[in-house]
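Section: Multi-chain targets

For targets with more than one molecule, the full set of components is provided together so that the structure can be written out for the assembly as a whole rather than chain by chain. Components appear in the order listed by the source. The example entry contains two components.
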Amino acid sequence: MKALCWQGVDELTVEQVPDPGIMNAQDAIVKVIASTTCGSDLHLLGGYIPMMKSGDVIGHEFIGEVVEVGSEVRRRRPGERVVVCSIIGCGRCWPCRHDMWSLCENSNPTAGITDLLWGGSTAGIYGYSHAMGGFRGSHAEYIRVPFADHNAFPVPDDVDDMDALFASDAVPTGWMGADLGGVRPGDVVAVWGCGGVGQMAARAAVLLGAERVIAIDRYPERLRMVERQAGCEAIDYTATDVDAELRERTGGRGPDVCIEAVGLEADSAGPMRVYDEVKQQLHLEQDRPIAVREAIHACRKGGTVFVLGVFTGFVDKFPLGALMNKGLTLRGAQQHGQRYIPMLLDRISRGELRPAQLATHTMTLDDGPRGYDMFKHKKDGCVRVVFRP
Amino acid sequence: MKRVVFGAATLLATGAAVARWLASRGRAPAAVRDPRESLRWLGVTINLPREEVMPDGAPPQPLARLDAEVRAERAPGDRGTELYARPRRAVPTGPMAVLARLRGTDPRQEVRKALRDAKSILETGEVLRPEPESVRVHGRASAVRKAKTTPTAPKARTESVAQPVRTEQTGERRQPGLRDRVLTLAARRAPGEGRL
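Its structure, encoded as tokens over all components, is:
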């Protein structure tokens, strides 16, 4: 089958690779209908995520049709149109039973690596390095879905492919940031980053009752999009002092909940960008936590900061003093998508969420490298590229 | 390949020398100088009651096949059962433990793997098998197509090639560094084991 493969830093190729097969009795094979780029893929492309190997198939956010199931699959059937959560959960370990699916203890065959890196193993993720299980990704014609009964969700007939596609990752990730960030009616919420996840986090905050939601980015088209689609305010961080702007808009308090949806390659208009870039390139820190620093500094006393962006290792100049003395709550997680996907499909069906608007470009897999070039460099107003194999 | 082997050998030799020096000055990490290290139990917590983890007191597979002591205790709260095991035979300590682990000869390694597998079998009924690494399919019906993510990359794919060829990159570039090499070396022995 055809697949988009990582070959090295900033190098992708379209390859013919062997078709996937049933390897465990609870597996399903899904024919991919649509698969989208995700901002976290850019960390793979840039070489920031360890344990990638030449030839790895990337992509983790997708929908498809079940074409084959293993002997122990009970709830899924061939022919079903399903959205598959990008994080793999077994559904029966203690974290899965408690709806913390990205902490699954049985879905990562190479759990020892994350155990060594982080002091605890995490769930498997499609197309996201051999530290996360080495599963082949979704930018392919077919994909193996382990523990299919727990990870593949039937798509209602009235939800179209493009809306359902983003229920795989961007929508539940954004929703989780607002939900676990503790957004309550009347809150002021700030969201750093207006990519797919940031836009969905902003919309989730609105739906959870936030009185004001303020989104921060530097790309005008993304800021206009989040104003129009999510119903929130926007700040261009290249045009103003974000911290001062947030204080002015909140009576000097700062936002109640700050959601960071940027990740380890954060940018800045100030000198910190250069400082962090130098340290990162010298391997004196793995990640650039610029948006996290800003969020902690801007957050109101006693507020919550939720880290949705992907980080891998150690950072420098972490404002622990502000965190402690302002009494903040800091949380973070890869998405617990299985907890939210059925509810989110219902909301999409009712028209409360319209994630299809994120799909600014649609291509075939053959155009995968060009699609990632557009996505990485935000060409032509690109927010997400969707590949239809 | 020679560079990798040379680098790994240098890393190991330096590590052993530093560990020995630290030990001689009484500054070794607690894990290295702890006399209990060789007796320590390795454990996983299984989301099932004790009677399902060790029915009739028999250790679960694949732990039962190992020459290991096994015990189980009720976990606090609703967390199920803590399953512990440790090898009966002597285990290496200090810097030798590091070398043994990298060589794959530390008896704790198979105990760690067996504990994880036992947990997975008890909770889900099977151990998830890793997928084979992607291998290109060559031949007439499987042409390899290639393009770059660089801004200057042409839209059209190039003809079939056997090996990827790098071209000039105009954006920022970063090559996998020492961290990846060390992780790769460690991971050769670590997958499925971790730091239980």
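Residues 34-127+180-187 of chain B form one domain.
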